[in-house]
Amino acid sequence: MIALVDCNNFYVSCERVFNPSLEGRPVGVLSNNDGCIIARSNELKALGVKMGTAMHLVPPFIRRQSTLLSSNYALYGDMSRRVTEALTEFSPDVEMYSIDESFVGFQGFDPTTLEAYGQHLRETVRQWTGIPVSVGFAPTRVLAKLANHAAKKHPGYRDKGVCKLETDSPATQALLKQLPVTELWGIARRTGERLRLMGIETAWQLREADPKQIRRHFSVVQERIVWELRGQPSIQLDDMSQPKQQIMVSRSFGQLTNSPHDLREALRQHAMRAGEKLRKQGSVTSTVMVFVRKRPAICIY
Question: Can you list the positions of beta strands (E) in the chain?
Answer without folding.
Answer: 2-7, 27-30, 37-40, 67-70, 94-98, 101-105, 133-138, 162-164, 251-252, 292-293, 299-300
